Amino acid sequence: MKILYAVQATGNGHVSRAQTLLPYLQLYGQVDIFLSGSNCHLPFDGPVRYRSRGVSLFYNNRGGLNYWHLIRKVKLSEIWRDAEQLPVQKYDLVINDFDFVTSLACRLKDVPSVHFGHQASFQYPQTPRPKNRTWHGEMLLRHFVKASCHIGLHFETYHPNVFMPVIKPEIIRATPTRAGHITVYLPAYEDAFLEKLFLTLPGTRFEIFSRSTHKARRQGNVWFLPIQRERFDESLIHSDGIICGAGFETPAEAIHLGKKIIAIPIQGQYEQVCNAAALQQMGVRCLGRLSEKERPVLLNWLTQGEWIHRDYSDCITPVVRKVMRLGEKIKQRDIERTFLPIT
User: Fold this and answer.
1) pLDDT tens per residue across span 189-227
2) pLDDT (tens digit per residue) in 157-189
3) Can you tell me the distance from the alpha carbon of 121 to that of 319, in angstroms, rounded to the nearest whole number?
4) In 10 A of CB 262, how many CB atoms?
5) How far, CA to CA in Å, does 323 sit from each of 28, 50, 149, 171, 218?
6) CA distance 55 to 75
7) Can you tell me the distance from the alpha carbon of 58 to that of 69, in angstroms, rounded to the nearest whole number?
8) CA–CA gap between residue 138 and residue 116 (Å, rounded)
9) Helix 316-331, helix 13-25: angle, nearest 10
10) What is the value of pTM for the model shown?
11) Coil, strand or helix at 194
């Protein structure tokens, strides 16, 4: 079987998940990777056959999305050209992890595909949402990628087509400890703000992984570290807890390791607000935004925050089998291609 695996390269979560899944998919045939996006800080070690700038998200330094930079980077003519040139029709199975270019290519060429990943879970109304939904956020999650079927990943199995998270082997094999420090990954906030805030909490060491730091540096109890996969994993594994965005992969890894968590959704990113709603149901502390006013909350969490744990160690094989079963049905044209979720 020839498999095209399209990976959204905005942020690090999609790339990390793809590298974890790649050996499992290669058991079923030849896998070619299409990387779409231009805002990932991790290298991809795998068979990247095609690339596109696609549609990427960019952040400002105040905890939100940089819409102006996002709009400037989107080239509609380039996206259309890349979609026309992407040879999706040559593959037996197209797996799409939230990439618009691949979705468009499949629509243009009438090729079925499997929408697979965290965002696919939002095709199902059972997946948690915040009390105040936004129509544009729902529209983006539901219609950014069109596919023949949708196989989602989330913190809990909210629907038969929603599976537990895919956790990378380094985290699965790890023996977590609590060495007394807090890992921090908040790429939407500037270093100067984080440094000023965490210096006011001198009893704890904070290891902050920063997209603008290329060499480790220390200021009092605050360490700034470059974003490196092995170093981040080591920090998280041996931390007391983590303060991070309300993304998916990092909180899922922290939950598997049994860490306490503060999750802060990126302003304007509806998916993360939805994730925060799910995390709150599990007992995770979530903040609307990080500011100096939250210092008492941070102090309380440092001393009394609860450790959250779920075992995600045996989650990869079931979801890969599900995707491949659907792939066989697609190959045999047994799935009615209505581009709607399959229940």
Assistant:
1) 999 999 999 999 999 999 999 989 999 999 999 999 998
2) 999 999 999 999 999 999 999 999 999 999 889
3) 13
4) 24
5) 11, 22, 10, 23, 45
6) 8
7) 7
8) 18
9) 70
10) 0.89
11) helix
Residue with the two structure tokens 């219609």: 143
Give the Cα separation of 327 and 308 in Å (integer).
35
Nearest CA among 183, 201, 185 for reference residue 292: 201
The Cβ of residue 178 has, within 10 Å, a number of other Cβ atoms equal to 13
The kind and range of the H/E element at 224 are strand 222-226
* Chain center to CA of 236: 17
Residue 216 CB-half CA count within 13 A: 8
Specify the DSSP element, H or E, that contains 184. Answer: strand 181-185
Query: Band of the pLDDT at 54, cuts 50, 70, 90?
Result: confident
The answer to whether residues 9 and 15 touch, using CB atoms and an 8 Å cutoff, is yes
Strand order of the β-sheet with 217-219 is 217-219, 222-226, 205-210, 181-185, 241-245, 260-264, 285-286
Phi, then psi, of 305 in degrees rounded to 5: -60, 145
Instruction: Enter the tokens of residue 264.
Output: 């802060």
Give the Å distances, CA to CA, from 84 to 20, 148, 235, 318: 29, 19, 43, 33
Burial 321-336 (b: 16+ CB within 10 A, else e): ebbbebbebbeeeebe
In the block, residue with structure tokens 């008492």: 296
Domains of the chain (ranges plus CATH)?
2-166+315-331 (3.40.50.2000), 169-304 (3.40.50.2000)
221 by Cβ neighbours in 10 Å (0-12 / 13-18 / 19+) ranks as: middle
Quote the tokens at residue 98.
């939230």
Contacts of residues 320-326 at CB distance under 8 Å and 24 or more positions apart, as own/partner, are 320/21, 320/24, 320/25, 322/151, 322/161, 322/163, 323/95, 323/114, 323/116, 323/151, 324/28, 324/93, 326/114, 326/148, 326/149, 326/151
Order of strands, edge to edge, in the sheet holding 48-52? 48-52, 30-39, 2-10, 93-97, 114-117, 149-153, 162-163
